[in-house]
Structures are given as C-alpha cells and as structure tokens.
Write a structure and sequence with these properties.
This protein has 3 helices and 34 strands.
Length: about 475
C-alpha cells in the first residue's frame, strides 16, 4: 500500500543517487518460480530481498500475478509464469497484506477473489470468492474493502411523467463490505434520492480514511424516474423543483453507461459545484455535507466508473481534485464553466479551506486531469488528458502536483512520447517519495514500470515485463 511519509528534496535526491548506484550493481539471472528475480540484494525504494513486489500482467487474455524483488531494473515474464487469475476490472490492495481482484459485469454479479503472500514466499489465492453487485467506486476503511454504486431500491411511486402510469423505484447506494481478515461479505443499501437537497440522486467517487473519518466525493447524477415523479410540477415555494424540466427524457434510449429511461433527467443540473460527505464511521449514515463552488464535482470518469480523486496527505489534510468532466456534457446547461482544479480540507476540519485553491488547467497549459494517486507527503501523481475533446483525447501524460502552502505542478520528464504510449496502469505503487507506473508502448518494446521521483518529477525505465499489458503493481508481505 502507499506509505504517506514526507521526504525533503534533499533526502529524495540522496535516495535517487543511491538507487542509481544500486541499479548498476544488479545482474540478470534466471527468475525463480513465481516470477521473481534474483538480482543483487541491496536496499532502497523498490528493492526487496523477499521478492514480495507483485505485478499483475496479461498475455493472450491470461492474467498472472508475478513476483519480483526489484522494481527498478531487470526483467520478469508473465508467460507461463506466476499465479494465473481470472479477469479483473480493478485491482485493490488492502494494506500490504491482501490483493483484491474486483470484477465488474454490466447488469450481473462479478466474481471477486483475493490473494496473499503464502508462508513459502509465493502468492496464493485465498479460499473465498464473492459475487458482488455492480460498482462504480471502491476503497478501504478499517478491516473492509468497500464498493459502492447507485442501485434501485424497493421504495416505489406511481408516475405518469412521460410514462403510462408506471411504478418507478427510488435509487439507493448499494454498499458492499468485504472484510479482509474474516473473508466475509456484507451488503447494505442507504438512501441517495435528494441527497443534496436539490432533488437529484447521487453516487460516490472514492472512499478514503483520514483522521478517523471517512471522506467521499458525492457525484450528482440528475433526477431518476422516481425523483421526477415526486418533484415534477413543483415550484420553488414548494421546496425541491426541477431546474430544467425540458431535459426530462420523453423516451428511452442510449446504450451502455449512457443509457437512459423515459421520465428521467439524465446528468446533473448543477455542474459548477462539488460536494464531499464526511462520515464518523463506515455505516454511511448522518453525513456532514460540505460544498464548494470553486471546482466541479470531484472524480475522474470512464464509462460507468467514477475514479477516486480525493486523497489525504501524510498530515491528514484531504485534497479534492476535479477533472471537470462535466465539460464533456452535450447540453450547455450541464457543462461546467470551471477548470480542472484542486481544493483542500484541512486535517481535523469538515470544511473546505478558503485559503487554498489551485488551477490545474492553467498550470498544465490548458489540459484537464483524468485521475490521480498519492505518492507521499503532499505529493500526488496526476494522469492528464492530452487534448480538449475528452471523448477522443489521449490520457498518456503524467504530472506531479505538490500541495502545501506553495502548491506546484510539473509534468513528468523521462517518459516515452505521448504518441508512443498505448496505456498506463490503473494501480501504480508508491513508497518513500517514489511511484512506479506501468507503461505500455507501441514501439515494439516490452511493457515496463517507470520509476517516478516525486521531488524531481523525473521518470526512468525500470523493471521490464514480458506481457501484453500491466494492470497493477504493489507489495504483499507474508503474514506473521
């Protein structure tokens, strides 16, 4: 898991110099069973004598978890090597003890499993498999891996708004808890209609723990058939009203994550604001809701997935990043006018810090952020769009954002050119001021992990992986 420990610039440069000399000492030798390597035993970020770094790679639709002791150099193969697994929509580490393969299937349950480092030093699958409901976000709290999505509930109401006297159902948040130690699964549904007081239902993006509280970005989704039926025709004097009633769909249409039903108002009518819910525990009850109008809703988005863009630093301050994805909406009234930016919630508070705001779009030369991850201290790794048309733009550029009282933005140098990168991994790994990002290129070279120094915003090519793609990299330590 990520370790949020602050490094000074001097310490980071010293570590980088140490690693350079260490890399020169490594030698390629045949890998032992499980996909590890036997490079020289040295110390430093990304190097372990225990072969407990794990890389999730795919070749010819076969997924494998391979092991290595060095993320900075050498080569491993996923071909006939490592532990084979089923497909995974996303890979999530619970601390450095368990790796979860979360599988999303549209309209169906997804088979999820988890993995650990066995006593013999080899990754093994744990006994329990889970059928989980569809999810759009995920995270960890305490002993649990948690997934969440907006789902239909049993609460209903009759509707004739562009329908033929149909019964429509309220939306709720379907929460799934996977207890990491006990291997149990618990389901819960909490209300999400009119969650923000504007008549719209919501989903969540990101689940993060800081200072003993749970923080999550609240993403307004527009008005469900239930919400439209309940509030259609009301005036402001009656309370909740529909801001743009002509946006209500008169017939069903669309496909995939863009599908809609007659009688609903798809996407939010309030794109120029962001909300965060703060909970005292993981029951998702009685939240403190805080709002800012300096950024649009905080998440990265791809189809039905809402990526976490809310993260704490090592001091417990929570940084809230917005990709301003609402710029991609078709109707101008649902497009945000706000640039991609960052705001902050100071440690121990439940309000946005009025003194902190950073315009990512201005600093990046006019480009929006796609998603982000913490590295250490108040350094964050940002994946950036490379064009203004979000449906067609690439997402192959990386940057470093540093928070604090003097926030800054720097593009990462040393990566392959944008047009040479086919894809970036969805789960990088970070420790001691360094992040390792899987990079797949179209120039004939094998995929590799690029070592990114946060303090200097520089990348160097590290471990090479014989595979078609790399999804995730992390660390699994054997249980005591």
């Amino acid at each position: 898991m990520n370790k949020y420990t602050l490094l000074t610039l001097a310490a980071s440069m010293a570590l980088a110099g140490m690693l350079t000399s260490c890399s020169e000492e490594t030698v390629d030798t045949p890998p032992p069973p499980g996909g590890g390597d036997t490079t020289a035993v040295v110390t430093g970020p990304g190097i372990s004598a225990a072969n407990d770094f794990v890389v999730v790679a795919t070749t010819s639709d076969v997924n494998s978890i391979v092991q290595t002791g060095n993320l900075n150099a050498g080569r491993v193969s996923s071909v006939g090597n490592g532990l084979q697994t089923g497909a995974g929509t996303t890979w999530l580490f619970w601390r450095d003890k368990y790796l979860y393969r979360l599988q999303y299937n549209q309209g169906n349950a997804g088979v999820t499993s988890s993995y650990r480092m066995g006593a013999g030093g080899q990754v093994e699958e744990r006994d329990m498999q889970y059928n989980i409901t569809r999810f759009v976000t995920y995270g960890t709290w305490g002993e649990n891996v948690i997934t969440a999505s907006a789902i239909d509930t049993d609460e209903s109401i009759a509707s004739d708004v562009f329908l033929s006297d149909s019964t429509v159902y309220a939306k709720g948040l379907g929460i799934v808890y996977l207890n990491a130690e006990n291997e149990t699964k618990t389901d819960k549904v909490v209300p999400c209609e009119n969650f923000l007081g504007n008549g719209e239902y919501v989903t969540l993006a990101g689940i993060v723990e800081a200072g003993g509280k749970l923080y999550t970005s609240v993403v307004p989704m527009g008005m469900s058939q239930y919400g439209v039926a309940k509030y259609y025709g009301r005036t402001e004097a009656d309370g909740v009203h529909i801001k743009y009633p002509d946006l209500i769909k008169t017939e069903s249409g669309g496909s995939g994550s863009g599908a809609y039903e007659a009688g609903e108002l798809q996407w939010t009518q309030y794109p120029d604001e962001a909300w965060v819910a703060v909970y005292d525990n993981d029951r998702f009850e009685n939240p403190t809701l805080i709002r800012t109008d300096r950024i649009s809703y905080a998440c990265g988005r791809f189809k039905s997935q809402y990526y976490q863009t809310i993260w704490p630093d090592s001091a417990g301050n929570v940084y809230v990043f917005s990709a301003s994805y609402a710029k991609a909406m078709a109707d101008p009234r649902q497009q945000t006018t706000l640039p991609s930016g960052v705001v902050r919630i100071k440690a121990g508070t439940a309000e946005f810090d009025p003194s902190f705001y950073f315009d990512i779009e201005q600093a990046s030369g006019g480009y929006q952020m796609y998603r982000c991850w913490p590295i250490s201290g108040d350094y964050f790794l940002l994946q950036m769009y490379t064009g203004s048309n979000l449906s067609k733009a690439g997402k192959t550029r990386l940057a470093i954002f540093k928070g604090g009282d003097a926030p800054s933005f720097r593009y990462v140098e040393g990566l392959p050119a944008d047009d040479l990168i086919s894809s970036l991994g969805s789960t990088p790994y970070a420790e001691q001021g360094v992040a390792w990002m899987p990079v797949v290129t179209n120039d004939g070279r094998q995929p590799a992990l690029y070592r990114i120094d946060a303090a200097t915003a520089t990348a160097t090519r590290g471990l090479e992986v014989e595979a078609s793609s790399i999804s995730a990299v992390g660390r699994l330590k054997a249980a005591n």
